[in-house]
Fold each of these.
Amino acid sequence: MNHPVIASLLPVVLFILAGFVAGKRRWIGGGAVRDLSNLVFMLLLPALLFRTMSAVHLEQLDFKPIGMYFLAASLVYAAVLLVQGYNRRGAVLALAGTFSNTGMIGIPLIGLAYGQPGMVTLFTLISLHSLVLLTSGNIVLELAAQREDLQRGVAPQHSVWVTVLRALRNGIIHPIPLPIIAGLLFGLTGWRIPPLLDQPLQLLGSAMGPMALVLVGVTLAYGSVGPHLKGALAMAGVKNLLHPAVVLGLGWLLGLSGVPLAVMVVTAGLPIGANVYLFSQRYGVAEDLTTASVAVTTVMALLTLPLVMLVAGQG
């Protein structure tokens, strides 16, 4: 019970289980899940990100592991796109194979397992995670949609450059990158957050982990996997096992080790982030499979994450 893997995962499992029970008993209605998710992403998570990053000094950050992580993600993304084909469905599934649930599960898990050094490494990654993956994913999706329209003889509504610029704007104006950037800029001033503001930010940030994990359980309670189980299991193989394996292999090749490598590998092994479903919903493609994949990768992570954390610890 005192093993670090078990000790760090057990609270995560218990919070998710509590949310699952609450969802099954309908203590939290299905319509309230979206509102509570907005509360986490729009208030609690930004408070945690801003407060943490305001105490970080840019010159102390190591971006080598981050570059390695995105290189690995691009390889997995390209592999899934190659298998699925260059279309909207393939683009959504490729994003699902590389976009981790860094907010709801990653932050509390990394914090419990690796402490403050791990959190700084994770937040450095998170500062670019959504910006890079969601922006590039949005661009690929838009271009794939235009390609499909042209194949059907439908003229695209916007030029390629307009599509790219809109995707870049949407990637930056996001509740995750903005507070991280704001926190880093505040830290550059050398000022400290006044106690009257710091304490509320600390309380809001500390509520993020439990609330987010409970919501994961509630979402699982309302989800439907059934007909898409086979496809969801295949996505779990890509997200929970292939992605961290590629990150680990590249990390070894580049000579990385210790907490930075472990955080990158474990982050890659996290289940699919909910933002992928929003993409599938927006483009009206693979919605049921994406929903099932989010649920299955989350459940499977209870089995695969201990393995990933143990292997990463050997690095």
Note: Residues 102-151 form the longest helix (50 residues).
Amino acid sequence: MTTTENRPGSDVIDWSAAPPPTDETGWLQRAREVRRILERDAAARDRAGATPYDEVALLKESGLVTLLGPVEHGGGGQEWPTAYRVIREVAAGDGSIGQLLGYHLLWFWAARLVGTPDQIEAVEADATRNRWFFGGAVNPRDADLTIREDGDDIVYSGHKSFSTGSKVSDVTVLEGVLDGSGDPGTHVFAIVPSEQEGITFHDDWDNIGQRLTESGSVTIDDVRVPWTSAAGFVDRAFQPRIYNTLNVPTIQLVFVSFYLGIARGALETGAEYTRGTTRPWLHGGQQRAVDEPYQLDLYGDYQSKLWAVEALADAVAQEALEIHRDAWNVTAQQRGAHEVRVAAVKARATEVALEITSGIFEGLGARATAAQLGFDRFWRNVRTHTLHDPVAYKRREVGAHLLRDELPEPTWYS
């Protein structure tokens, strides 16, 4: 959808007429309103694959982009347990938009993970007041961007295969390695405006799922940043903390959130279709599909499994809350033990989401394979993103901790 008249949320809800929510209950209700708008035409928008400018505008108008922002600057003042549940709600309506929101919230928060106190305050104030939407060009499987010093500036150059958010972002997070800093090198994060001559988004995201995430490749050509904006650096020297390494467990829980949201969307959309459209088997002796014993078993099994993983995800998010609240004093033991729990829920969320989104067709019937209905999008979305990093390595982290009392070493994926 590209016109104002057809934009999701157009002439539906005027959020500006009401004060923003002040607690988790209110923000979850706001997220459900966004979900209902998105899910009305999610299948059609998935087929069209258009750049989701209007969908991101909807996230801004609803206030969800500033969910984690300081209240004094107009933000929601919420914490990660609420954010993860909000991402799940949005992803239930549209998996792509749930991923965009999740990545945005991670990059919005990244100043707290890496930055100095002054940088954190400045970034969050500007991002909240201006409702910036964040993208990121930080794919660790590619060669790092190179950074050269030029007076009081650092200058980024290079290419990344993936840059989620790309054209719909207001700002992009860059990460690279400083020339001459050896191996593994000095890594530097910075936030830059997305619309500038030095950044070229290549519009080459053409995957089977998560089609509206704008995750194509990007070329960075002499993008200049003041040294004072290098995240976590003081007088050109990085200020390390254990908390600097919490970006990976946090983004992994973002992944869990939109996997579970997509699974929830498949289950509830499927149940609605089964109640209203699916016919009973002609030799089964039932008058309604909802009375078929195999339907009751299927939906009961999937609901039970989803509830279980959602509960685990909520518990792990709550465990992380104390780590986030005591960011300056996190220990390696705390960080490692938390990552093991994150690995466990990531593994279970992956398996359950794939099972539900592929198996739900058993409850729908042959007519539900019509392309117009787009029931396949749920599986395509989960299958695409769950290949981000091998889930076997997540299970291995859990096993190594249980059998050998080992904690995962912080990496770009653990």
Note: The beta strands are 134-137, 145-150, 153-160, 171-178, 187-193, 199-201, 218-226, 233-234, 237-238.
Amino acid sequence: MTDSLQPNGNRRAPLPPAEPPDSEAPDPRPRPRSENIQNTQKTQATSGKKRDAFFDNAKYLAIVLVAVGHFWEPFKGENRSLEAAYLVVYTFHMPAFIVISGYFSRSFDMRPDRLRRLITGVAVPYIIFETAYPLFKRVIDNDPQYEISLLDPWYLTWFLCALFIWRLTTPIWKAVRHPLPLALGIAMLASVSPQIGDDLDLQRVLQFLPYFVLGLCMKAEHFQLVRRRSVRIAAVPVFAAALAVGWWAVPRMPTGWFYHRASAQELGAPWWAGPIMMLALFGCSLLLTACFFSWVPGRHMWFTALGAGTLYGYLLHGFVVKAGDYRGWFEHSALHEPIGLAAVTVSAAALVTFLCSRPVQRVFRFAMEPKMEWAFRRDAAQSARDREREPLGERDDREKRDGREKRETQETVSA
């Protein structure tokens, strides 16, 4: 009967079945403010970026090669094969480390919180270790005449000085049109300028600058390109050829070219050799660095967590190397045999692995990552961001506490 009441006698179409609510659609019902804040914090916690295992693995493996190279140094003059391997390692281990440093410096600007991290994480450790190393030499080597100089980086501290300068200039490299060619031009000019001197180790700062700028220019997909299977396979003959070239170059090329701490004239070469060697080594370093990155595992490994402590391993292993040099540990004849050299290599890798571990980080965090909240003014913008991240209950308690303290202060003043 009801059907006959419809126009033209048409039957009414049945209603569609109820669909389950869309979890991604916005809920039209208003929610309490506290629930919204909790959901926002939960979303931020779950969507926060995690550390990329590839970069932590790369940093750890690079710092192992740095330590191994330093422990090889006392033996390289007696073994041509070892010196060839030494040259190959020195061609790419610091460039790889510097490229990663540049890549993670892309977001650096002059914001107060980032400047504070630069000071506490780079400048303060530089001052501490630039003071500690000469004092260590005085005690271990019985050299009371050795002076402390913050302008002349000693041994490993040059990297901290360079990183501080590179990061401060990051906004410039992000503003110019062709940053990498400009950085290469500066490095080439530095290689023919012996007048630069040793202050702040500017030769190294300028000659290693292109690798840092390259890291600033790189994106995540660039690292994906070198991690393809074809590149991993091609890296095998590339490294084999590099070792052969290194073996050939041992009696023909000064090792100083690979340190990037002297000009061509200071290495006994004509001035025009500086730019040529700078470009040649830059190309070789990039090739071997790409091959090195291709072999770095991208998944979580047993040593992945150690990648967060590479600065600890870098700065602390130098004390052991210098102690061995001062005390004559490397002069034992057994260490100059193949088995002894293998033992030195394994020991160097084990030592730097231990120095990157969490227990060592906890002990030396005061020197590597001091908070130094007492030394800086409180940033108003950062305070506002911290208040926004506070849970509602804690914020209400803080506001009540602040209001109570304000009233007590006013009553005290009026009394």
Note: Residues 51-375 form one domain.
